[in-house]
Amino acid sequence: MLETINLSKNFKGKKAVDEVDIYLDEGESVGLLGPNGAGKSTTISIISSLLKPSSGDVKLDGKSIIKNPAEIRKILGVVPQEIALYEELTAYENLKFFGEIYKVKKNILEERIRDVLEIVGLKERQKDLVKTFSGGMKRRVNIAAALLHHPKILILDEPTVGIDPQSRNHILETVRKLNEEQETTILYTSHYMEEVEQLCNRVYIMDHGKVIASGSKSELLSILSSEDTIQVQLSETSDQLIEKIKSFDHVRQVDETDEGIRIISKKGSNILSGLVLAAEKEGIQVTHYQMETPSLEDVFLHLTGKTLRD
């Protein structure tokens, strides 16, 4: 339905997006993950026709939209990172304004406003000024605005950042229903891995402007199928111990956690005895260890060297 082909964008000689190829099939929910500065928002801005690429193309049903962006704007809804509402207007007034910008016909605009307010659970607050809303409620109005013209594709750029758990759960449930019940095609970026795992059929991972991995959850997890992840609790940690463990044969990555360290090593390699001896030499006790099943967070850390929230 929608694809980017060798998509690139340069800013002052630096490539923010570097030959990115992604696609969305109709009715899919696709996650776009990456640390800050990975190029996610720039990619979304190009797909949304807000930016022109330095090179490459974006195609909708096989037709380029770079020279004719009106085609995608008719069927695309975008929920940006920053709240884009007029705080001195009510929720209803904001939605009426955006509905007119979307050129929703007057005879159906009132019905669409009622529908989207129902979807985001704010029908009872439609006459209240947006400035009186919590951050989570404002983000729900943002989503409602993006749904007024009944888009076939919905892009959500970190829609749950900095909001209360109740609003977050409501947004996640709204996105799930839009995808499963209304068959809206979703492109979803987030700093919360569990959201992407819950909502998305496929995932793209970006870093330094490039797509470095893509696939279903099981396909991405297979990247670590040749590795063991060991969570180790210690009485304390030290830089000397971490550096010693990094020097072990078959150890590929060591990361400090709240309770100790996480070690990724070659599958089947027995490093626990060496770990205990190294810890004892530093006067540190191994209080607990556990073999972990790899998660998407582990894959992300393995590929980028960072956690998703870094």
UniProtKB/TrEMBL annotation:
It is found in: Cell membrane. GO terms for cellular component: plasma membrane. It comes from the Bacteria. Pfam families: ABC_tran (PF00005), DrrA1-3_C (PF13732). InterPro entries: AAA+_ATPase, ABC_transporter-like_ATP-bd, ABC_transporter-like_CS, DrrA, DrrA1/2-like_C, P-loop_NTPase. SUPFAM superfamilies: P-loop containing nucleoside triphosphate hydrolases. One of its GO terms (biological process) is daunorubicin transport. SMART domains: AAA. Transmembrane segments: none annotated. Residues 2-233 form the ABC transporter domain. It is a peripheral membrane protein. GO terms for molecular function: ATP binding; ATP hydrolysis activity. Keywords: ATP-binding, Nucleotide-binding, Transport. NCBIfam families: drrA. Belongs to the ABC transporter superfamily. Drug exporter-1 (DrugE1) (TC 3.A.1.105) family. This is Export ABC transporter ATP-binding protein. It comes from Virgibacillus profundi.
